Amino acid sequence: MTNSQSPDVHGLFIDGREVAATRAELLDVINPATGELLAQISHASDADVDKAVRSAEAAFHSHEWASMSNRTRARLINKLADVFEANLDEMYQLETANNGRSLNETRAQISRLPDFFRYNAGLAIARRDSVIPVEGNYLNYTVRSPIGVVGNSTPFNHPLMIMVKSLAPTLASGCTTVVKPSEYTPLTTLRLAQLFSEAGLPPGCFNVITGLGPTTGKALAEHPGLAKWVLTGGTEAGRITGALAGSNFAHQTLELGGKTPVLVFDDFDVEQAVNYAAFGGFIGAGQTCICGSRQIVQDKVYDEFVERLAAKAKSIRIGNPADPSVQLGPVVSARQQKRVLDYIRIGLEEDKARLVAGGKVPIDPALQRGFFVEPTVFADVTPRMRIFQEEVFGPFVSVTRFSTEAEGLALANDSPFGLAGAIRTNDITRAHRVAARLKCGIVWINDHHRLDPASPWGGIKDSGIGRECGTESFDQHFETKSVMVRLDDAPFDWYKDTATQARLN
User: Fold this and answer.
1) 396: part of which helix (H) or strand (E)?
2) What pLDDT, in 10s, does the model give residues 184-236?
3) Considering only Cβ atoms within 10 Å of each terminal Cβ, which end of the chain, N or C, has fewer?
4) CA-based nearest residue to 472, from 456, 494, 489, 483
């Protein structure tokens, strides 16, 4: 892996500035489209993690941040949104180079992110505490206060978007944070922290530490200074880090694996179903937790669907993601490429599964140094096959046949995961009926992969706990205190009048 120029070397971002790590070791950041060295980052030690958390704790309790009014904080969060928006072009280019997602996809995704800050700035102004009607002559009200330091471990597939889903409510609520981005894709997170600091975000409110999950990530998850732990990643990583954070009774939001079922009924236009299948299955090179990886298609349109999806997959333009004409870039690393190719081998070994598109590395010599995999489709997949049950996290879609609505629902719910599901039908009654019975946290009817700052996002079962986005996420950054005020001036002496007291509580 070579680079004609010396790569940029990045330190950690703590207390509003870049600082050197205590550990001399550097980690390589590779351009997944070319295999070239893009940059080097620090590998934060336990001492570095402690320094970052202490910086966030100091900022949380500082007069400048803790005494800031909701309206002043909202104005600052809106200013951060404006700064983000003014630097979008730089972010498009940097994220595309770093994670290999096509430039058009990256632009379409990142351009929405400033609105996450604006939405949460609105919640900061609009939030109200409650007055609760209770029995007796009492006034009962609640007071909410920010919980403290939020530790956030983000993945490689959507580095900025997933980080922003947590960062926006964290800052708007008055909390502070330490973010550990994936070692594969840290560059846009480091850059955003620098931009926000220059825009006036107080030092220590947004710290970034870089390093490996088993070392730096572990040290962050188990740090007793965290009030909340947020992770987007694999289910096993969620179990490990969730247990670590849980030992300190930290609040948690874990968005983990997925194996999204898509139910295609025979009353829906097949061409549109195929277009959505390609979008849901291959966007981001299939490296999304809500990838539409299980297409479950009704008998009458099954054969036509398979034929059209195979043709669609073969038509997708693969290449360097910096080229605006390219529709599919590489997966993020050699390790991820091997994982996808291993699942293709597994699919080929499964009894009766039929490969109808893709299944190999592109033959174009210009792509050989990158981590490319062709869009892959397996047909005639049954629920006991590994490629039906296990998350691949690549451009890999399986197609399974069903006859009745009940059978389709049973196939869709036959999974340890429960993040998202999708339905393709023109029968509005069936759409709502099936949506209610899908065992997952998100459902799209005649669409896929739609996200809004106001719409709660998260899963059940092995797909995690808690919700991002919406008022649900914002509210999870507060502790609630109940205040009970007695409004009766009558004398009280329990021990004088015990026998006549009406109630103890």
Assistant:
1) strand 396-402
2) 999 999 999 999 999 999 999 999 999 999 999 999 999 999 999 999 999 99
3) C
4) 456
CATH number of 8-256+463-482: 3.40.605.10
- Which residue in 253, 252, 260, 258 sits closest to 277, CA to CA? 260
pLDDT (average), residues 156-183: 98
Of 24, 13, 9, nearest in space to 178 by CA:
13
Cα separation, 149 vs 128, whole angstroms:
22
Catalytic: 289?
Answer: yes
Task: Point out the catalytic residue in the list 175, 289, 440, 469.
Answer: 289
Q: Band of the pLDDT at 239, cuts 50, 70, 90?
A: very high
d(CA 122, CA 113): 15
Give the length of the chain.
505
Contact yes or no for 264/304 (Cβ under 8 A): no
Contacts of 473 (CB under 8 A, 6+ apart): 165, 166, 169, 253, 456, 467
Beta bridge partners of 262: 295, 422
Contacts made by residues 432-439, CB under 8 angstroms, sequence distance 24+: 434/263, 434/405, 434/408, 434/409, 437/409, 437/413, 438/261, 438/409, 438/412, 438/413, 439/413
Q: What are the structural domain ranges in the chain?
A: 8-256+463-482, 261-445
Considering Cα of 337, then 338, then 341, then 347, what sign does the dihedral take? negative
Contact 476, 251 (CB under 8 A): yes
Check residue 490 and give its pLDDT: 86
* C-alpha dist (Å) from residue 299 to 234, 374, 446, 495: 33, 27, 19, 77
What is the tens place of the pLDDT at every residue in 462-503? 999 999 999 999 999 999 999 999 999 888 888 887 777 766
According to DSSP, the β-strands at 396-402 and 226-232 are unpaired
The radius of gyration of the chain from alpha carbons, rounded to an integer in Å, stands at: 25
Contact 441, 466 (CB under 8 A): no
- Centre a 10 Å sphere on the Cβ of residue 480 and count the other Cβ atoms it contains: 11
The fold adopted by the segment(s) 261-445 is Aldehyde Dehydrogenase; Chain A, domain 2 (3.40.309)
Q: Which distant-in-sequence residues (6+ apart) come within 8 Å of 212 by Cβ?
A: 27, 43, 183
Within 126-244, strands assigned E span 131-132, 138-146, 149-153, 176-180, 206-208, 226-232
- Which of the residues 183, 222, 255, 391 is marked catalytic? 255
Q: Is 255 a catalytic residue?
A: yes
- Decide: helix, strand or coil at residue 347: helix
